[in-house]
Amino acid sequence: MATVAVIGDGQLARMMQTSAIELGQSIRLLAGAQDSSAAQVCADVLIGDYTDLADLRRAVDGADAVTFDHEHVPNEHLQTLIDAGVNVQPQPAALVHAQDKLTMRTKLAEIGAPVPDFAAIESVADAETFFERVDGKVCLKARRGGYDGHGVWFPDTIEELRETVTELLDKGVPLMAERKLAFDRELSAMVARTPSGEVKAWPVVESVQRGGICVEAISPAPGLTPQLAGQAQELAGTIAAELGVTGVLAVELFEVDGRVFVNELAMRPHNTGHWTQDGCVTSQFEQHLRAVLDYPLGSTEAMQPVTVMANTLGADTEAEMPVAERVQHVMRRFPHVKIHLYGKSYRAGRKLGHVNVTGRDVAATRREAQLAAHFLTDAVWADGYLAHETK
Amino acid sequence: MATVAVIGDGQLARMMQTSAIELGQSIRLLAGAQDSSAAQVCADVLIGDYTDLADLRRAVDGADAVTFDHEHVPNEHLQTLIDAGVNVQPQPAALVHAQDKLTMRTKLAEIGAPVPDFAAIESVADAETFFERVDGKVCLKARRGGYDGHGVWFPDTIEELRETVTELLDKGVPLMAERKLAFDRELSAMVARTPSGEVKAWPVVESVQRGGICVEAISPAPGLTPQLAGQAQELAGTIAAELGVTGVLAVELFEVDGRVFVNELAMRPHNTGHWTQDGCVTSQFEQHLRAVLDYPLGSTEAMQPVTVMANTLGADTEAEMPVAERVQHVMRRFPHVKIHLYGKSYRAGRKLGHVNVTGRDVAATRREAQLAAHFLTDAVWADGYLAHETK
Ligand SMILES: Nc1ncnc2c1ncn2[C@@H]1O[C@H](COP(=O)(O)OP(=O)(O)OP(=O)(O)O)[C@@H](O)[C@H]1O
Ligand SMILES: Nc1ncnc2c1ncn2[C@@H]1O[C@H](COP(=O)(O)OP(=O)(O)OP(=O)(O)O)[C@@H](O)[C@H]1O
């Protein structure tokens, strides 16, 4: 059977392994550490540095396809591998659009995809001009390396904008700015695409963010019109095709007055697609493996009317109750909640796991997912349910 | 998080690993070989011999619970481990009933569970007496070590019975006989039970056997009356409690004129429970881990009206088409079929994998599962569908 080499050792690689196992495969991993989320659960692990060409070469040797759980592998190394005949999916020509927010927006504007008004910011003067253009509604972004809201700023005044831009440019951070939208909510449209060009879309989900971090995903996005859902799916498919994306593509969207604007692209399984593990015929992890191997894609039909994913994020201080005990409390109260833990050590704000809950009613399903996800870090039932009742 | 040590390296251990990963755990494995089905996909593998106490000791050191993917670990070794404080689940006191068909039937008769009329066969005279008692309707069985129909004989005449018994007793095979039933079909009632005594039952499935091997499982068993389904579930729960089973228990049943008789017990995940991976909120592999760790059990609700599991068995000669290509044909024709492969080398009659298909219509779902499972070994569509149509 085929071997997929995965560069990166986080939870995405870990969850690819569960899908690989059932397909009769097993992931070859290039990991930073043996105790990393993914390396803990793979048999074929090379410990190395993904910025080191020699390590990359060793990791991909003999693999049928090479893919990633993050966007940080140097493109020049990937190109060297491709030139040597290695099957890298997705390829740097696509990846650049997930690595650089300005490159992405420029390309999307070019293909006619809706993006908020934006500009490169290479000087304070650029920032001032943009500030005028958008009536002061500015969202400033680092072009590269942002994640979970790091690298995004909302200066309220032109003075604050000048200050932030000066400081960041001095530090050598390449910048762009876009119009700050008063959006109604955030959506995520996910598709998978194969090198042969087959594309399959999942239902569009609503993604709930707190402090720049996705905390919840609701599938399908409640109350989304079939028209807008169809548009968002088609948009994601067009972007995948136009940018030459292979594997899973997540298109993060803003919904504003019945229209959508693209905020961000991720070319790998994505937090807003975790619900597919328990709510969909084909999970994003299985689909990603199929896509990078150029296998036919699986059905993206939902298994139940509603699936809610809620992230388990490290709180400021870890609860005293051991995590294995917290897990048992959640299992006892909610026998149908699906717990997914990443084997990561505790850190405030860190994504440690998630839960998926399928159901028929959005409000009830969300409530259960939130309660369960929070208990897994806090050891407290947010609704006042008494701990001894779940003993 | 907790560590479960699994003794055995087959597909059951392999599939426990996929569930363990998502629970934030990872299996500790005692495997016979590094290229075995389970060892291929686990990070923490000890190569050793499960009949060797020293190897067992090393494998279970520090594990929160110890469990099995087969019934062949010597009970005296397990008792030694238990005496040393190791948490073995299920325990030998329960396991004996899955290891010896006569012990099992004697116990079941004692607790009032329905079993076909049976007797120990220690001499040809015993066999003759039993032959008379059941009007020649004899099923002769090796008490220990049978699997997939090996160790089961149906002598048609008293001469044949005498011959077979003489031959087997000479070889030192301990024997029993039971009444050969003209059953309507075979069912499987599966439950999980924790050391604390929580029990949860899955829907009762119909199991289709060919040559003593389970080839298909249909959930729920078509046309089974709610009364009989409830009886079968209750029976399985009673057996689990009375025998002190922990983890998953499969009770294989014969349905005869609206009644059930127990044929066989397995105290581990079972072939007739594979459908739960894709058709049920909680798979038997996750449930087994939860049960042996004494965690609360998960919901056993079905995700769809029908789920069919079909086994992929090695044919007499392997198809020329590489297996990775066969997989792609199946994926192309049936985007919603779930393929599970065990990473095993080809051998005629060997269980190499299975497929699960969920749906609404029993006949259509069975047809798809059978077509897919057969194509995975034969590279032929049994319904004449043309290969080039799935290119
Ligand atoms: N143009 C905008 N207008 C209004 N809010 C915005 C805009 N761009 C970003 N935001 C807010 O900031 C959050 C983080 O932005 P963005 O997704 O670009 O950052 P990121 O660090 O790349 O995050 P991720 O890791 O989710 O990709 C968004 O979820 C949104 O809430
Ligand atoms: N008493 C009986 N009457 C009629 N047929 C029987 C009887 N016992 C067994 N069989 C047939 O033989 C098959 C194999 O029997 P049994 O399940 O006991 O064997 P096994 O080798 O232990 O199989 P498994 O691996 O499925 O547990 C059964 O599935 C059934 O078809």
UniProtKB/TrEMBL annotation, chains A, B:
It comes from the Bacteria. Keywords: ATP-binding, Ligase, Lyase, Nucleotide-binding, Purine biosynthesis. Gene3D superfamilies: 3.40.50.20, ATP-grasp fold, A domain, ATP-grasp fold, B domain. Residues 105-293 form the ATP-grasp domain. The keyword Transmembrane helix does not apply. One of its GO terms (biological process) is 'de novo' IMP biosynthetic process. Pathway: Purine metabolism; IMP biosynthesis via de novo pathway; 5-amino-1-(5-phospho-D-ribosyl)imidazole-4-carboxylate from 5-amino-1-(5-phospho-D-ribosyl)imidazole (N5-CAIR route): step 1/2. It catalyses: 5-amino-1-(5-phospho-beta-D-ribosyl)imidazole + hydrogencarbonate + ATP = 5-carboxyamino-1-(5-phospho-D-ribosyl)imidazole + ADP + phosphate + 2 H(+). It holds the Pfam family RS_preATP-grasp-like. The keyword Nucleotide-binding applies. GO terms for cellular component: cytosol. Catalyzes the ATP-dependent conversion of 5-aminoimidazole ribonucleotide (AIR) and HCO(3)- to N5-carboxyaminoimidazole ribonucleotide (N5-CAIR). Catalyzes the ATP-dependent conversion of 5-aminoimidazole ribonucleotide (AIR) and HCO(3)(-) to N5-carboxyaminoimidazole ribonucleotide (N5-CAIR). Belongs to the PurK/PurT family. Homodimer. This is N5-carboxyaminoimidazole ribonucleotide synthase. It comes from Corynebacterium maris DSM 45190. The lineage of its organism: Bacteria, Bacillati, Actinomycetota, Actinomycetes, Mycobacteriales. The gene is purK.
